[in-house]
Design a protein that fits this description.
The structure is a single chain. By secondary structure, the chain is of the alpha/beta class. The chain folds into 2 domains: 216 residues, Rossmann fold (3-Layer(aba) Sandwich); 36 residues. The protein contains 9 helices and 7 strands. It has a 7-stranded parallel beta sheet, with helices on both faces. Strand 5, helix 5 and strand 6 form a beta-alpha-beta unit. Helix 1 packs parallel to helix 2. The longest helix has 29 residues. The radius of gyration is 18 Å and the shape is globular.
């Protein structure tokens, strides 16, 4: 039995034009899946498709749309079925983080984060879940964070932690509701990861501390059992596992490729 073989499986990665979403899309392609990536910006999608082609020799499809709106998600479902045929895998990797002190947090931004980081996950699960229910099989993988389980020291992450905690509970509830249809719902909770989006953040923090970026990253990783921060590739294996037949009896779980942070945090 080929437990990790995704040959011929159709996979949609929302938030697949960069960062962890693109890394996961690459891993799914390498495991044999037919992949469609989606995000709001078509230029970013075209760039990601070209990078995926270079990395894997395979061509991913793409769809530009906003996952916070049901009409766009309904159009995404239709496009995925048309381009991929049999769709059985959904990865929710969309969202953003805006850090502000809780005493001064802009509530409009807080609501935007709830919409992007949580509501969009519900919308995609609702519409792809219908497809999976009809097929009697499906895999939903939500990108959460260790910050859904443990808070940060100091200020800035009130909205991010709240949204990731909500993703974790949404994952568990959807697993309860979708399980009878043969659909699994799980989440991945990584630690701080060196994605392209974080490069400027690391540079600013290093400059503020008057140290190099390498020194900053080494200091960040020193407190974790694995003694380093995460790389995008560290998340891919977990995603392929959750997308594959190897995890057919696992649902409602949050897996932590986090260098051991949640073991000690």
């Amino acid at each position: 039995m080929q437990l990790f073989d995704l040959t011929g499986k159709g996979a949609v990665v929302v938030g697949g034009a960069g960062g962890l979403g693109q890394a996961i899309a690459q891993g799914l392609l390498e495991a044999g899946a037919n992949v469609l990536i989606s995000s709001r910006k078509e230029d970013a999608l075209k760039t990601a498709v070209a990078e995926l082609k270079t990395a894997t020799g395979k061509t991913a499809e793409y769809f530009a749309g906003d996952a916070t709106g049901e009409p766009d998600v309904e159009a995404l479902v239709a496009a995925a079925k048309s381009k991929l045929g049999n769709v059985t895998i959904l990865v929710n990797a969309q969202g953003f983080n805006k850090k502000q002190d809780a005493l001064d947090f802009d509530i409009a931004t807080f609501r935007q984060m709830l919409d992007a980081n949580v509501t969009s996950f519900m919308i995609t699960a609702k519409h792809f879940g219908r497809v999976f229910k009809e097929a009697g099989y499906g895999k939903i993988i939500n990108l959460s964070s260790v910050r859904g389980k443990v808070a940060t020291v100091g200020s800035g992450n009130a909205a991010y932690c709240a949204t990731k905690g909500a993703v974790d509970m949404l994952t568990k509830q959807l697993a309860s509701e979708f399980g009878p249809f043969g659909v699994t719902v799980n989440a991945i909770g990584p630690n701080i990861t060196r994605t392209p989006m974080m490069v400027s953040v690391f540079a600013k923090r290093a400059a503020d501390a008057n140290i190099t970026v390498d020194e900053y990253l080494a200091a960040q990783g020193a407190g974790y059992p694995m003694r380093r921060i995460g790389e995008p590739e560290d998340i891919v294996g977990t995603a392929v596992f959750l997308a594959s037949p190897a995890s057919d009896y696992m649902t409602g779980n949050i897996l932590y490729p986090d260098g051991g942070l949640t073991a000690i945090g």
